[in-house]
Amino acid sequence: MTDALRKLPLSLQHVFAMFGATVLVPLLTGLNPGATLVASGLGTLVFHLVTRGKVPAYLGSSFAFIAPLALFVSKHHAPGQAVAGLLSVSIVYFAFALLVRLVGFDRVRRAIPSVVVGPVVSIIGLSLATTAVTVDASTHWDVAIVTLAAAVACAIAGPRALRIIPILAGIVIGYLYALARGLVHVGQAASSSWIELPTLHAPVWSLAAIASMAPIALVTMVEDLGHMFVLNEIIERDVTRDPGFGSILFGNGLATLLSALLGGPAETTYAENLGVLAMTRNYSSRIIQGAAVIAILLGLVGKVSTVIESVPAAVVGGVGILLYGMIAAMGIRHMIEAKVDLTNTKNLIVVAVIFILGIGAPQNGIAIATVAGLLIYWLLPDRTQA
C-alpha cells in the first residue's frame, strides 16, 4: 500500500500529460470523453500486457483520425460505421505486426539510418510546439510562465520529493496561481453525475468508413516507430528488439479494437508521456499502468473528470513547453551520439527536409517527413566523396 501511494503522484503526472490531448479528440469528433478516457486506460493496460510490461508508454487518442471520425460521428450521426472503420484500422495493425515478425525488424531497422531517426525524433517534439505556445500558453502567458518556472525549479533545485514529480508540481502550482487569478471554473462539477458508463455501439459495416480510416493506420504506424525511437533514447534500451516492434504494433492494434468497441477513438503511443519519462527519469511501467487505472476511474467518475478538465490551457501549455522541448533535444542527442556527419551535403539535406516538412505540414507531417527523408537518403547518390 505504501509503495502504491508513493507512486500515485508519479502516475498522476502521466494522467495530466495525456489528459488534454486525449479528451480533445472526442470533443472535436463527437465521441464521449468519458468513454475515451476509459478506452485509453484499458487500451494502455492491454498494450502493456501484450508487450509484457517492457514498453513504458501510454496510449491515448490519435489525432490522425479526427477528420473521418468527425464525418461519421458528428455529421452523419453514424457511430456504428465509425466503429467499423476503427476495427479495420486494428486489422491493418495486426497484419503489419505479423509481417514484421515474419520479415524481422532488423531488416526494417537497417533501412532507417540515424540521420533520419534523429530529426524525426526532434520533430515529434517540435510539431507540438504550436499547441504548447500558440494554442495553450498564449491564453494567459503569466500562468504559463509560473507553471514552467515552477516545474523547472522543482526539477533542478527542488527537494528530492519534488525532483521526481516536477511536472505534477508545476501543474499544481500553476493551477493554484490560476485559481487565485480567477481563471479556474469548476461549476460544472456540481451538475455532473458521479458515475458515467460508456455507451456501446455495435459496428455497422461501411466501405466508406473502412476506406477513409484503414489507410491512415500506415501513417500512425510510422509515428509509432518514431515514438519508439524516442523511447529508446530515453530509457537507453531498444524496445523494437525486446519485446519487438511486432508486439508493439499488435498491442496498439488490440488497444484500438478495444477502444472502438467502447465508443472511443483509435489509440496511439503518446509523445506527451515520453516527455514525462525524459524529465523524471523514472521508467517504471507500473507507473504508466497506474496512470491507466486512474484514467479509467476518471472516465467513470463524472465529477472528478470535470474538475481535472478545469485545469486552464495555459497551465498545460507551460508544462508542454518543457515536455515537448525535451523530446526535441533527444533527437539532437541521438545524432550527436551516432556521430552523424552534418558536413556531408546529403546528410544536411535529409535533416533539412525532415525538419521543414515535419514541422510545416499541418496533417501527418511526421509520417510525410519520415518517408521523404528515407527516399532522399536511399535514392539520391552521395557525391560528397567524389
From TrEMBL:
CC terms in the record's Gene Ontology section: plasma membrane
Transmembrane segments: 34-50, 57-74, 80-100, 112-133, 139-157, 164-184, 204-222, 243-263, 283-301, 313-336, 348-380
Top-rank taxon: Bacteria
Subcellular location: Membrane
Primary localization class, coarse: membrane
Keywords carried by this UniProt record: Membrane, Transmembrane, Transmembrane helix, Transport
InterPro entries with a match to the protein in the record: NCS2, Xan_ur_permease
The keyword Nucleotidyltransferase appears for this protein: no
GO MF annotation: an example: xanthine transmembrane transporter activity
Topology of this chain in the membrane: Multi-pass membrane protein
One family name in Pfam for this protein: Xan_ur_permease
PROSITE patterns for the chain: XANTH_URACIL_PERMASE
Family as reported in the entry's similarity comment: Belongs to the nucleobase:cation symporter-2 (NCS2) (TC 2.A.40) family.
Protein name per its UniProtKB record: Uracil permease
Organism annotation: Alicyclobacillus vulcanalis
